[in-house]
Amino acid sequence: MTPPSVDVVTAPIPATSGGQTMRIGRLTLAAASLLLMATASVPTGTPLSQTERHTLSSDAFEPRGAAPRPPVQRPKHEPPFGAFVGSWDNYIPQIGKYAQWLGNANLQVGHTYLAGNGWADVEGEPVVLGMWSQWRLTDPSRLLVLGVPMLVPNEAHVPDGEVARLLGQGARGEFDSHFLRLARRLVALGGADTVITLGWEMNGVTYTHRCKPDPAAWKTYWRRIVGVMRSVPGQRFRFDFTPNRGLDAIPWTKCYPGDDVVDIVGTDSYDQPAGSTFDDYVREPYGLQDQVEFAAKHGKPVSYPEWGLFRNGDNPEFVRRMVDWMRTHDTAYQTVTDYCPHGFFQCRSNPRSTAAFKQLMSGSPGAPVVVPTAPPAPIVPVAPSTPATPTPPAPPAPPTVPAPPTVPGLPTLPGATASHSAGASPSPSAAGTPSRR
Predict the structure, then answer these.
(1) Is residue 119 within a helix (H) or strand (E), and if so which, with residue range?
(2) How many other CB atoms are found less than 10 A from the CB of residue 345?
(3) Which end of the chain is more exposed for a tag (fewer CB within 10 A), N or C?
(4) pLDDT band at residue 379 under the 50/70/90 scheme
(5) Phi and psi dihedrals of 182, rounded to 5?
């Protein structure tokens, strides 16, 4: 593709300027040449999305500045790990099969998502929440990670103007009751210590809960949700701020809602764009190095709720470097996305990467999961700046889901209920094609 043109304006060099002016002229030309080379490889008109990102924009770069960088390296260790294998309750047995495939490795992290087709999805289906919470309670070292949409419908290509309007409503408290119901259900069903990836990948364009249409309202809305959910007695939730790695539609630092409402700084990190190396992912603006340094400065651990292969095919080097990165930083947990084209256990398209992953993870004993011993102090929600639509009273607590019989290591599970949406965020479609990617 033809790179954008760069106009270099030259002027006559005064006879009295001597070599100094000539050197300045050369530096100017050199700077212009560097700018040309830096932009030549960036396609114009590339959509800013999870699958095609890293284009440059006017607000793309915020210099790191001259401040000292915090120490981020850790002695090599095994953080709690798992895999996303599907959202509904009938995917839970896959975790046990995955562990056996890895030589009985200790998969401690279960990762699932709430669908975002309507507010009933965000409030959480009791059967699904109950079964995942029971999986968590079977072993005290386990950790449940739950992706929670902030707006609905969450994958409907909602235009920016409507997103901004919805974010304003959320910031004024008009959706509080839905998150209150979700929090009450999680506590009642045994998921009081769930890690919540609220509004994941907010710096992109895929989801309605994206940040760019109104970052100020987005941050206020996040704060409201956290305040509402932390107000429920017995909760010990942790909230994971999880953007896409790198620059997407907006620098993710512009969406950060505050240290008092964030417990973990995550990133979703896939092997893309095509032709990039792992070193590129470390050094890029808002990449892996910026993530760990930002988290260290704010006193937070990091996480990798989604990672896997993508645009560079079967790439064992990415797998090895990513696992090593997570083992040498302050990683709270990591979960690989395991369906094609990203993963290994449920995808036969990546034999070399699969072999590398098995070599690295087989027989892993995992690690103790540290959870808060007491709930954080509730945060007072931001008062509405304008009169808001009255919030309907909260319904009574949902009925208790009967605990099904268990077998060692895994609960006995009923089939998926008819109300499970086929459009659930990250689960594969019936044909095996990911619905999110």
Answers:
(1) helix 119-123
(2) 18
(3) N
(4) low
(5) -60, -50
Q: Is the pLDDT of residue 190 over 80?
A: yes
CB-based contacts of 320, cutoff 8 Å, min separation 6: 356, 360
For residue 157, the tally of other CB atoms under 10 A from its CB is 8
Largest CA distance in the chain: 93
Peptide bond into 273 cis (omega under 30): yes
Would you say residue 269 has pLDDT above 50? yes
Q: Report how far residue 79's alpha carbon sits from residue 193's, in angstroms, rounded to the nearest whole number.
A: 18
Mean pLDDT of 365-372: 73
Reduce the DSSP state of residue 383 to 3 states and report it: coil
Residue pair 349/341 in contact by the 8 Å Cβ criterion: yes
Residue 258, Cβ neighbours under 10 Å: how many? 13
Which positions are catalytic?
201, 306
- In whole angstroms, how far apart are CA 126 and each of 85, 142, 190, 229? 20, 20, 11, 17
Quote the pTM value.
0.75
Q: Is the peptide bond before 285 cis (omega within 30 degrees of 0)?
A: no
pLDDT band (50, 70, 90) for residue 68: confident
